[in-house]
Amino acid sequence: VINAGKSQHNEDQACCEVVFVERRPSPRGQLPSREGVGELDGVRAGVCVQVGTKGFYFHYWALFDGHAGSGAAVLSSKRLHLHICDQLRDLVDILQDPSPPPICLPHDARASTVEPSQVPLAEDDGEVPNDAVPRFHLEKVVSHESLVIGAIENAFKHMDDQIEQERASQHLSGGCCALAAVYLMGKFYVANAGDSRAIIIRNGEIIPMSREFTPETERQRLQFLAFLRPELLGKEFTHLEFPRRIHPKELGKKMLYRDQSMSGWAYKKIEEDDLKFPLIYGEGKKARVMATIGVTRGLGDHDLRVFSSNIRIKPFLSCFPEVRVYDLTQYEHCPDDVLVLGTDGLWDVTNDKEVADVVMEVLTSYEPNDPCRYTMVAQELVMRSRGVLKERGWRLPNDKLGSGDDISVFVVPL
Amino acid sequence: VINAGKSQHNEDQACCEVVFVERRPSPRGQLPSREGVGELDGVRAGVCVQVGTKGFYFHYWALFDGHAGSGAAVLSSKRLHLHICDQLRDLVDILQDPSPPPICLPHDARASTVEPSQVPLAEDDGEVPNDAVPRFHLEKVVSHESLVIGAIENAFKHMDDQIEQERASQHLSGGCCALAAVYLMGKFYVANAGDSRAIIIRNGEIIPMSREFTPETERQRLQFLAFLRPELLGKEFTHLEFPRRIHPKELGKKMLYRDQSMSGWAYKKIEEDDLKFPLIYGEGKKARVMATIGVTRGLGDHDLRVFSSNIRIKPFLSCFPEVRVYDLTQYEHCPDDVLVLGTDGLWDVTNDKEVADVVMEVLTSYEPNDPCRYTMVAQELVMRSRGVLKERGWRLPNDKLGSGDDISVFVVPL
């Protein structure tokens, strides 16, 4: 739902697809394939498959919670799964082969930028199979799972790059949090960059599948960056955290502070530099990076600047998600076990336990084989979090204020 | 125990003390107290207390696992608790007052470095009580617990500074991991910097009280630093991780890699720069930072350099501990519930479950009120991990090799 009082447009966007990952054609004897963000040839969602084409499917659900406009969220909802597909295309054979992934692949014939001085020696013409490469005494075994994680991580990066490149021509504004669930070869990969959240409810038990990335949870990473690159603070901010603003009159007194190395607090004598505005300021939903943004990961925001200043926020934001893996084959599941994805519009007013209760309550009122039952759960979760319009605004059943935000929920049966 | 085959000297050091924290005398009307590392006047361990002196006690156990010499470990074992005491001295009144700690303290009269331009205005002469300071709309509440955590964190920093300053005159070499448990006002604060470990065993349940800081667990922090400050790598290392060394012949091929933003792996085309040695290399106990050191937090190591090079390791090491808190008042404890602190000499060969089994086994063979029973557990843990000298070296009961390292264990009844 769009919260009516706030905006005409929904800044939450969503996508649900079955995507076929087609092995990238061998480059031998072909023209070099075009590369570059935005050109994702061979990547199609839900298309029919050529007979004999090698590849696999993944299932995909994603939520994009936009801010300062819906442009980044709209583009991401149309493209992120294609970037994931594109990253997986080189892995089609490797992921379907049960032996450990090769550490090194043969020469990429499309790679034409190798300088003459870098051309391998004659006896190694690029056709040598991987196991003919001399072994070193140490070699890490990399799992298939971690290749999928790496593919999703880099897909988020490419999505962010695409937003950067198209933002001028497409008039894209703002940024978005992104939460994506990929079901591939028996495993759920839940990738989160922002403050949306995912939980699994299995046999009544709540299993968190994400954590939120906010100025509070990422304080030390941001302070560390500001400490190493003070020029990013533009002489207006300090990397230290204080429990409140400091008044110039308080110079010379001792005040509680934290730096990038501390999780506890200590007193320091207030100096001139401490009067600057703190990089991280505020608590809970009100915490902000440089008084500007309340999430620290996501896509877009390339033009975001501190109000009436030229200081860029983007260097402090990360487009990389944390990816958690849930192996469906490791557990028995019943029809009431679900994965719930929600934007912060849900979680701000409905906690994990309440969500689990609604799931249980609604699912038991439908037959286990009724395909509507999961949709009804999602609808109920959204409606409860929005509340009912009364004279004093939108109210929850407990008479508290409903969510003031757009609300989006996926309920995925396991 | 000292592992006989390895060294004549024990690089493990330990300390166990009851420390009285005496409130620092008010500076009013006194000479400015001398400041500086190494001068810890008024800080005494286990001394008798003047009548009327205000303060409190803390109990303290710590293990220091030295490397490249025992100097840093010896000095730390003699001084770290005094630094903790020194940090706590300013907090004596605050920690004993149940109301939330003040955000800002009145002027420190000893602080004589305030410039005339910084002198507060006349109406604020430094005697204004904290609550007279104008309030801002946001003010974070800081807990007593987080002040103790901050005190311990800064004590580790001062200890590290002291090693740096005294290393030349005292001929101190090397560094050490530090694991310290502070019992204060009903809570255990377990501070860890390195690869020693602490667990609580309560009613047979294992509760981890630390995590290890190694090149593997801190890979992304180190890669992030190297990415932002490439000059620290001295042109000989790359911040990227590869699963093995790359042969120059492999230029242009694709190899698995991870950067500071990734937890998964992906393929990249090998470039000239990738032939440098990786910042983080090796697995498990063999993982190293710049091929040199296998722990990423601790005290000392100020002179540590990459072998036959001038590249310093210290910028990548952190002296700050992670502090975990266990509130003793929240649980009922029986005489068999203990906190176990051990250096990696213990944990490399004896896992948590085996330690818990030994605790149970030994404690049940003594009367619950026999004070020796905890010492006997510690002794048994050390002896089992060392093993028995046979023709083929020191062997564990399962005939595997015993620990090749010094082994130290504290068993603390809860």
TrEMBL record, chains A, B:
InterPro entries: PP2C (IPR015655), PPM-type-like_dom_sf (IPR036457), PPM-type_phosphatase-like_dom (IPR001932). GO terms for cellular component: mitochondrion. Signal peptide: none annotated. Residues 1-414 form the PPM-type phosphatase domain. Coiled coil: none annotated. PROSITE patterns: PPM_2. CDD domains: PP2Cc. It comes from the Eukaryota. One of its GO terms (molecular function) is [pyruvate dehydrogenase (acetyl-transferring)]-phosphatase activity. This is Protein phosphatase 1J.
